[in-house]
Design brief:
By secondary structure, this protein is an alpha+beta fold. 39% of the residues lie in helices and 23% in strands.
Length: 662
C-alpha cells in the first residue's frame, strides 16, 4: 500500500473550509452543552467529529484523523449517558477542538501538523475511565483511503443478465448510501464515495447516474449501487467511514454476477478518468472579487455610452437609447447576481461568539448568558470578513468592562448572571447589528475628564459636546475607561480600530448607555461595499464625493452669520455647535471665486464628533461603483476611493476623518 493515488492538494481548500465549519459547530455545541446536556446535542457533536475524522482520513492527514477518532470515541461514550458531561469534560473537548483547528490551519498552510499525542492519550484515558474498559493499544497507522494501483475499469452489468454462480467472478455486494441532509456539498460527497468504492472493485447499477451525483441531484440523498470486489464486508464498511457526511445504510451480499466480458475499447461513461474536478459552490474570494470588478467596469462603461449618446443627432438617439437600456439591464442583472453570490450569512461570525464569551467570562470571573438573534441575515463577504474582529472586540468589552462580577451584581440588586444580547436586523438597504449588555454602563463625565487629562481636548470643548459626541470619545485612540489592564482589554486600544474598520466598509457606529443599566453598541452596515451612495460636492473646478452614511445634514447660510469660538468659525446645528472647515483648504485646491449670499455647509461625522464642511456647490446624490485606489494614491490621507461618473469624470471619495486629522 502506498499513499493516495490522486492529488489531494486540489481538495485542500475544500477540506480546510469544511473542517473549520464542523469545528466551529462543535465548539458552539459544547457551549450549549454546558447549559444543559441533551442526547440530541451530543449526537450533533459526534457527527461533527465523525465528519472531521472522515475528511482528514480521506486527505491522508493521519494525525488529525487519529485525534478526531479519539474525540469521536469519547462522544460516543457520552451519548450513552449525557449526565457524565461536566466542566472538566467540556474543557477537554474544547481543548481538542482547538488542537484540531491548529491541525487544519497547518494543513491549509502546507506546514507540519502539530504534535497532539499527549491530547490523544488524555482523551483515551478519560474514555477508559468512563467506560471501565482498558485503553486501546497503540495501533498502526490507518491504511490510506486509496491504493496505489488503479482498479480495473468498472463494467456495467446488463439489467437482463441472468443470475448465475461463477467461481471466477468476485463477490458482489448491494450497497445503499445516505448523504447527510446537512452536508454543504452533497455532490462532492457522493462523488468521493463513488471514487472510494471504485478503488475496491467494479461499480455496477449506480443510481442516480454519476453526472447527476456530481451535480448534486440526489433524490432524498440516497445512492444505490452494486460493488464487485474481493474485499470483505468489513473492509467496505471501513472504507465508507473515511468519507465525511456519508452513511452506509445497508450492505448485503448478492448472487455472484456472470463472468465479466472482456474490457471494451470504448470509454465507459461511468469510469472516472484522470483528475476530473468536482463541481462545487466554493469559489476563491479573489475570483469573486475579479468578477465583481469586471461587472462594475461594465456598469461604468454602459453609463459612459449613455452619456455619449446624448451628443448624437436626435433622429439617431431612440434606437441607440433602447439598445443602451437593454445593455444596462443585462449588465445590472449580471452585477446583482455576482453580488448575490458574494452574500454570506453573518452566522459565519456569530457562530464563534458563544465559545469566545464562555472563555472570556471564565477568565474574568463573570457569569454571562449570550443571546444571538438574526444570524441568518446576509452581508457582502468582504464586509463579513472585516466585521469579525470588531464584533469580537465589542463582545470582550461588554463582558470585561460592562458586565459586573456576580457579587457586584448582587449588591446592585441584579441577577448574578449578566446578559449580553447580539441582535442583527435588516433595515431596507442596510443591516443593523446591536450588541447590548446589562452591565454598569459608560461614565461619560469620566470620559471627558480623561480626554482633558491627556490633552486631547480642552474643558471648554468637552462642555460643548452633545451626549452622543461625549459617548463617542471612547473611540479616541489610546483612551480607555478600564481601571485595570488585563490580557483581554483595558490598554486603550481597540474602539478606535473598531470605528475605523466600520468606516472602511461604509458603516457607522452609535453608542447608547444608561448608568447601572447597560450599554448598546449599534453598527449600521451597507449590504455591499461595491456600490456606494455619494453626496457630490463642488470645490472650485473639482467634484468630490462624500459617503451619504457619513452625512448628518446640510445647512445653507451666509458665511458672515457664522459665530466664532477661539478665533475659529463654528456653525449652529440643532442643539450643537460644530467647528467649520473649508474643504478647499483641507484639499489645498482653489475655491470658487463667485461669492454667494448663501453658502452650503455639509455636516459630517468625524472621529471627534461632527463637523461642518464649507463647500462651493451641492451637485446632488448618486449611486456609484466604488473603486479601490492604487499606489501611490492609497497613501494620500483623506482619500477613501474613486469612482467614474457617466460623463467619464473621475471623482475622489473623501475620508473626512483622515482629511481633518492629516
Amino acid at each position: 500500500m502506498a499513499g493516495p493515488s490522486w492529488d489531494t492538494s486540489r481538495y485542500l481548500a475544500l477540506f480546510a473550509g469544511e473542517a473549520a465549519e464542523h469545528l466551529d459547530g462543535l465548539g458552539k455545541d459544547v457551549v450549549s452543552l454546558e447549559k444543559g446536556a441533551t442526547p440530541a446535542l451530543v449526537d450533533s457533536m459526534f457527527r461533527h467529529a465523525h465528519s472531521v475524522k472522515g475528511m482528514a482520513s480521506s486527505m491522508a492527514f493521519e494525525a488529525t484523523a487519529k485525534l478526531a477518532h479519539r474525540l469521536e470515541d469519547l462522544l460516543d461514550t457520552l451519548r450513552a449517558d449525557v449526565a457524565r458531561v461536566d466542566s472538566s469534560v467540556a474543557d477537554l473537548i474544547l481543548q481538542t477542538v482547538d488542537a484540531l483547528g491548529a491541525h487544519v490551519k497547518a494543513a491549509a498552510a502546507n506546514e507540519g501538523l502539530p504534535d497532539s499525542s499527549a491530547l490523544v492519550t488524555k482523551l483515551a484515558e478519560l474514555n477508559s475511565s468512563l467506560t471501565g474498559k482498558p485503553m486501546p493499544a497503540p495501533s498502526a497507522p490507518p491504511p490510506p483511503p486509496f491504493v496505489s494501483e488503479p482498479s480495473p475499469p468498472p463494467v456495467k452489468s446488463s439489467p437482463s443478465a441472468p443470475a448465475a454462480v461463477d467461481p471466477a467472478a468476485p463477490p458482489r455486494f448491494s450497497l445503499k448510501l445516505k448523504i447527510n441532509p446537512g452536508s454543504n456539498q452533497p455532490g462532492v460527497r457522493g462523488f468521493l464515495a463513488y471514487k472510494r468504492l471504485g478503488t475496491l472493485g467494479n461499480v455496477f447499477d449506480l443510481k442516480p447516474p454519476l453526472d447527476d451525483i456530481k451535480a448534486g441531484r440526489v433524490p432524498q440523498g440516497t445512492i444505490t449501487l452494486e460493488l464487485e470486489t474481493d474485499q470483505t464486508e468489513d473492509a467496505i464498511t471501513r472504507t465508507m467511514r473515511t468519507v465525511a457526511d456519508i452513511e452506509l445504510e445497508s450492505i448485503a451480499l448478492v448472487v455472484k454476477a456472470p463472468p465479466a466480458p472482456p474490457p471494451s475499447t470504448e470509454a465507459d461513461p461511468n469510469r472516472v478518468v484522470g483528475q476530473e474536478p468536482a463541481r462545487t459552490i466554493r469559489v476563491r474570494t479573489e475570483v469573486m472579487d475579479q468578477f465583481l470588478d469586471q461587472a462594475g467596469e461594465l456598469l461604468l462603461a454602459t453609463a459612459r455610452v449613455r452619456e455619449l449618446s446624448r451628443g448624437m443627432p436626435e433622429v439617431l438617439r431612440p434606437p441607440l437609447d433602447e439598445a443602451v437600456d437593454r445593455l444596462h439591464l443585462l449588465v445590472k442583472g449580471l452585477h446583482d447576481k455576482v453580488m448575490a453570490a458574494r452574500m454570506t450569512p453573518i452566522a459565519v461570525i456569530t457562530d464563534r461568539l458563544p465559545r469566545a464569551a464562555r472563555d472570556i467570562a471564565r477568565r474574568r470571573g463573570r457569569e454571562v448568558d449570550l443571546v444571538i438573534t438574526g444570524e441568518d441575515i446576509e452581508l457582502d463577504r468582504a464586509i463579513v470578513d472585516e466585521l469579525a474582529d470588531p464584533v469580537l472586540h465589542l463582545l470582550r468589552n461588554a463582558i470585561d468592562h460592562g458586565v459586573e462580577t456576580p457579587d457586584e451584581r448582587k449588591t446592585a440588586g441584579k441577577a448574578p448572571k449578566g446578559k449580553v444580547t447580539l441582535t442583527v436586523t435588516r433595515q431596507r438597504d442596510r443591516v443593523v447589528l446591536e450588541l447590548s449588555d446589562d452591565g454598569r454602563g459608560i461614565d461619560v463625565e469620566r470620559l471627558k475628564v480623561l480626554v482633558v487629562e491627556r490633552g486631547l481636548m480642552t474643558p471648554d470643548q468637552t462642555r460643548l459636546l452633545s451626549e452622543r459626541d461625549g459617548l463617542m470619545l471612547v473611540c479616541l485612540p489610546g483612551l480607555s475607561t478600564a481601571t485595570d489592564v488585563t490580557d483581554i482589554s483595558g490598554r486603550g486600544v481597540g474602539m478606535d480600530a473598531v470605528k475605523r474598520a466600520l468606516e472602511q466598509v461604509g458603516g457607522t457606529l452609535d453608542i447608547e448607555t444608561r448608568a447601572g443599566r447597560g450599554t448598546t453598541f449599534r453598527l449600521s452596515l451597507p449590504l455591499t461595499v461595491a456600490m456606494v451612495n455619494l453626496l457630490l460636492v463642488g470645490v472650485g473646478q473639482e467634484v468630490y464625493g462624500l459617503p451619504i452614511g457619513k452625512v448628518s445634514g446640510v445647512v445653507e447660510t451666509a458665511r458672515e452669520r457664522l459665530s466664532m469660538s477661539q478665533n475659529a468659525p463654528v456653525l449652529q446645528f440643532g442643539q450643537s455647535v460644530l467647528p467649520v472647515h473649508e474643504l478647499s483648504s483641507l484639499l489645498e485646491v482653489p475655491a470658487d471665486d463667485v461669492r454667494r449670499v448663501q453658502s452650503p455647509f455639509v455636516v459630517v461625522d468625524a472621529d471627534n464628533g461632527r463637523l461642518a464642511l464649507a463647500v462651493d456647490r451641492l451637485l446632488g446624490q448618486e449611486e456609484v461603483v466604488l473603486k479601490a485606489l492604487s499606489r501611490p494614491l492609497d497613501l494620500v490621507p483623506g482619500l477613501a476611493g474613486v469612482t467614474i461618473l457617466g460623463n467619464g469624470q473621475p471623482v475622489f471619495i473623501l475620508d473626512v476623518a483622515r482629511l481633518v486629522t492629516a
